Prior knowledge:
Layout: H1 2-9, E1 14-20, H2 27-30, E2 37-42, E3 51-56, E4 59-65, H3 66-72, H4 88-97, E5 99-105, H5 107-124, E6 128-135, H6 143-151, E7 155-161, E8 172-176, E9 185-190, E10 200-206, E11 211-216, H7 219-233
Parallel strand pairs: 1-2, 6-7, 7-8
Antiparallel strand pairs: 1-3, 3-4, 5-11, 6-9, 9-10, 10-11
Amino acid sequence: MLDRIIERLTRNDRRFTVYGREEETDIEAQFAAHSVTVDYHRLPPDGPDPFVVVEEDGEFAGAVPVTELEWLLTPPVVRPASPAAVSPGYRVLFEVLDETVFTALNRRQLDAVSKEIEDRARRVGGGQLRASFQQLSTFADQVEWYWTLGEAGLDIHVYGAPDWEPPAIPGVTYHGYGDASTERYWVLTFDGGPNPTQACGLAARAAEDSFDGFWTDDAELVAEIEDALQAAAGVD
Length: 236
């Protein structure tokens, strides 16, 4: 399941074609960290107002005025309450905004992303945090930090191959697994606790000397990652 989610999120079958009047656009740079192809075509002086054509799986999904896209990209990005409430073109746009795809991220960089997610959970001070450390021995350097997270009132679940006996930490439950294929993944999720809008997570898969994957602020996708992690670890 984790493989399917990563492959789905890192696919490159969505395309934004920008039609504008300027020599360049910064839209391509804004979507550099997302799995989307951005093309640019210059409009004639007497053409329509600049717009973006959104395609998914080679099919037209919709068109968005550039002025509206720029407004949508201005923080804080406000997502619709329900995907069904917006047209297909806007749905694809918001899906892309909710996904930060990465390739060839090294362990140090991935650890920095993890710390951001863990620190958000600490600041919220409630909710469930799930972390997969590949092997439990990798967790040894994190014991002090996770003691702090446990004291913040979080319900923490740590997963990893049982190659080490971790110490008891208030609020932390350990889950060992013996499936070697699961050890390829680095997964971290926070469900947002009392505020689902704070949900966030990442799913990474080990490659040669790096990791490929994505991180997200979409609560539904975070829940999907959680379910996949528990299934991979054989935990209900």
